[in-house]
């Protein structure tokens, strides 16, 4: 990895780390989701500084190029996030349906009481 690429990767990781903390501070991102993104930013910085670790991981799992292994882990990361968000959306959809039904029952009881 060239020094220029290392610097860019470190800056991206550091920016991601600071940006996530700022989003949590402004309450635009909940703390329960922030840990995953903070770990991602930290991992980018660690792998940028310690490129041999990425090469070792690549050799361990049988990857030919460290960049392809990094891409593979990025795809797995995105799939896991998509799965988690799908579960959350399903849960929130059920909650909205239940709230709408309860509100409808409440309104019909209120109208009958008049």
Sum this structure up briefly.
With 114 residues, the chain is mainly α. Helices cover 89% and strands 0% of the residues.
Keywords:
114 residues; 2 domains; 4 helices; 89% helix; mainly alpha; single chain
Spell out the blueprint of helices and strands:
Elements: H1 3-25, H2 31-49, H3 51-61, H4 66-113
Structure explained in plain terms:
The chain is mostly helical. It folds into 2 domains: about 1-50; about 65-114. Helices cover about 90% and strands about 0% of the residues. It has 4 helices and no strands. It has helices at about 5-25, 30-50, 50-60, 65-114.
Unreliable spans are: none
Largest sheet composition:
none
Number of domains: 2
- What structural category arises from helix and sheet content? mainly alpha
Note the beta-strand portion. Answer: under 5%
Secondary structure tally, helices: 4
């Amino acid at each position: 990895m060239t020094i220029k690429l290392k610097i860019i990767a470190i800056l991206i990781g550091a920016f991601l780390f600071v940006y996530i903390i700022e989003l949590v501070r402004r309450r635009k991102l909940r703390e329960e989701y922030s840990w995953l993104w903070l770990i991602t930013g930290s991992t980018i910085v660690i792998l940028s500084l310690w490129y041999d670790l990425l090469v070792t991981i690549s050799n361990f799992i049988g990857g030919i190029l460290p960049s392809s292994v990094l891409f593979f882990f990025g795809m797995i990361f995105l799939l896991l996030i998509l799965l988690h968000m799908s579960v959350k959306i399903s849960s929130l959809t059920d909650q909205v349906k239940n709230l709408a039904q309860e509100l409808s029952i409440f309104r019909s009881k209120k109208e009958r009481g008049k």
